[in-house]
Amino acid sequence: MNINKPVMAAALMALGMAATSGTLFAADMAADGAKAADAKVEMEHCGGLVKAGMNDCGANGHACAGQAKADSDPKEFIALPKGTCEKIAGGIVLSEDKKAM
Known about the structure:
- Pfam families: DUF2282.
- Residues 1-26 form the signal peptide.
- The protein is α+β, with helices and mostly antiparallel strands and 101 residues long.
- It has two helices and three strands.
- It has one domain (5-99).
- The protein has helices spanning 5-31, 96-99, and strands at residues 43-47, 77-81, 92-93.
- A three-stranded antiparallel β-sheet has the order 2-1-3.
């Protein structure tokens, strides 16, 4: 699959923004007097965005994180806050069936 650099840069920027928004959410909860550890952000597995060696958890025939062999493999995933993956070009929300692969 041929991915051009501007598309990949946009996807990585969106991932960074998603990570920042999760951090700001936790800081906001702590400022309100609630324990940040009590705030549960619902996560989903997002495939097709992972760089080689940067995947979360086991999938695609291996058992450990960091073993993705190719960039943008649709079967390799990272965990993102629910609803984020579908907003990213190239992101594929993996179903429960595909998570077990």
